Amino acid sequence: MLIWGWKTRTKVLGTGTFYSPALGADGPYELVEARRWFTLFFIPLIPLSVLGTFVRCTQTQSTYDPRVLDGPTNAEFMDQLYAAMREVVVAVASADGQITDEERRLAVEIVGGYSSAYTAETFASDLTRAHDQPLDQRLAFLSTSLNDSGKERMLAAAATMMTADGSIDDRDRAAVSDIGGKLGMTDAHIRGVLMMAEERIQRPS
After folding, report:
1. What whole-number distance in Å separates Cα of residue 164 and Cα of residue 157?
2. Contacts by 97-106 with C-beta closer than 8 Å and gap 24+?
3. Is 170 helix (H, G, I), strand (E, B) or coil?
């Protein structure tokens, strides 16, 4: 008597690190393929159709659509955010063609909030490479990774940098507005951030 049928088997296609929603942090994953097999005497003999692929968090066993791998890991995101903030302070500080001591101090204060390794010497080095820095690409990356609140905080830091020398001109405003636009912020949102920065500088001490 022949006993035949079908059975679904899984196969690990690859492994790596991803941002696991279940963990709320980076964690290990397996990319898994599920395939139907023809069985004879309960032994899988002939591979049939692929039923699908999925990502499995190996720590929680939670499963996800493979598109979850399109998103950055937390480590990748933080690296991009730190690099972008370095480039943002350089872009705003150099917009008017002059770098003041207060701008140097404030740049270290702002970016130092992301890494204690950032120093006045780092800022000076970044200034020499200002035209070679991939700020546009980093802002495009962050435009899809940051929420509205995160974008506003980033632009507010740029606007604070704009006020460092005690005066604001059109070049400063244009630099900050350009950053907000490339982050995907609306014109109204950008104007609001600029207005708050300008009100601070006009307010009597």
Report:
1. 11
2. 97/171, 98/165, 99/127, 100/164, 100/165, 102/164, 102/165, 102/166, 103/161, 103/164, 103/165, 105/164, 106/160, 106/161, 106/164
3. helix
Tens digit of each residue's pLDDT (9 = 90 or more) over 34-44: 988 767 666 67
Distance CA 192, CA 53 (A): 45
DSSP helix, strand, coil percent of the chain (3-state; round to 5) = 50, 25, 25
Whether the CB-CB separation of 17 and 36 falls below 8 Å is answered with no
Local confidence band at 176 (pLDDT 50, 70, 90 cut-offs): very high
Q: 89: left (phi > 0), else alpha (psi -120 to 50), else beta? A: alpha
Q: Measured between alpha carbons, how far is residue 3 from residues 35, 37, 43, 49, 194 in Å?
A: 20, 14, 10, 21, 75
Please give the helix or strand (H or E) that residue 43 lies within, else none. Answer: strand 43-57
User: Which tokens is 91 given?
Assistant: 């872009």
* pTM for this predicted structure: 0.76
